[in-house]
Amino acid sequence: MSTLRLENIELYYNRVHALRDLSIEVNEGEIVSLLGNNGAGKTSTLSMLSGLVRPKSGTAMWGDLDLTKLNPWDLVDAGLIHVPEGRRILSTMTVHENLLLGGYLVKDQNLIDERVAYAYELMPRLLERKTQQGGTLSGGEQQMLAIGRALVSGPKLLLLDEPSMGLAPLIVRQVMDIVRTVAEQGTTVLLVEQNAKAALKIADRAYVLESGHVTLSGPAAELADDPKVIAAYLGT
Q1: pLDDT tens for the 236 residues of the chain, in order
Q2: Quick check: pTM over 0.85?
Q3: Is residue 91 part of a domain?
Q4: Interaxial angle between packed helices 169-184 and 139-152, expressed in degrees from 0 to 180 and rounded to the nearest 10
Q5: Which spans in the chain are helix H?
Q6: For residue 233, which of 203, 205, 208, 201 has the smallest C-alpha distance?
């Protein structure tokens, strides 16, 4: 797979115009962040990419795959993995069982074992909690578990929705370091974040969304110094 390209996407939820002429691009191996306040269209973008909702018009291509025409399970099989807002782990299953669920489409048990081992290596806290039920974990540990489960699926393109939500600053840094490491290992990442400061520290590029369309875009380092971004998202 290669570049993800969205061009002129129009998306409605009933009468709500969620995405307006949205065009973004994510190159292979990049971390690209979508920034914006609640209602800006960030989660709608990820939901559309993972096949949960269909756009009214526009194109969404990932390499030669037309994402608007595939079922969510076909996209997972192709390596597009979505970690939704709120983590969505299975609270009555153990950490290890949650990780194994990430490999439900993987037919090679040895490969599943390798990926689970990598998740434990990347996030030793999960190994310490291996036999605990997911619901007993802290918020940060649950977010690590959600990312770990996604890694067992073998993502080529990882969609992350608000991974820092509700976490203490120290844990936010740990989670963002994990995301950066995953990208350095070759996974393309599209990161949705309200925590602009944390996102811009690890992203290569970013787009700022307002009311479903892009208002600013560019290299993350440049946006971090943009007065408009500072005033709206980073504080003065």
Answers
A1: 589 999 999 999 888 999 999 999 999 999 999 999 888 999 999 999 999 999 999 999 999 999 999 999 999 999 999 999 888 899 999 999 999 999 999 999 999 999 999 999 999 999 999 999 999 999 999 999 999 999 999 999 999 999 998 889 999 999 999 999 999 999 999 999 989 999 999 999 999 999 999 999 999 999 999 888 888 777 65
A2: yes
A3: no
A4: 10
A5: 42-49, 72-78, 95-101, 109-122, 124-128, 139-152, 169-184, 196-202, 220-224, 227-229
A6: 208
In-domain check, residue 118: no
CA distance linking residue 78 with residue 157, whole number of Å? 9
The domain tally of the chain equals 1
Q: Within a domain: residue 122?
A: no
Is 11 contained in some domain?
yes
Please state, in angstroms and rounded to a whole number, the distance separating the CA atoms of residues 140 and 205: 25
CATH number reported for the structural domain that contains residue 52 in this entry: 3.40.50.300
Residues 10 and 56: beta-carbon distance below 8 Å: yes
Q: Which two tokens stand for residue 51?
A: 């096949």
* Domain around 223: 4-79+155-234
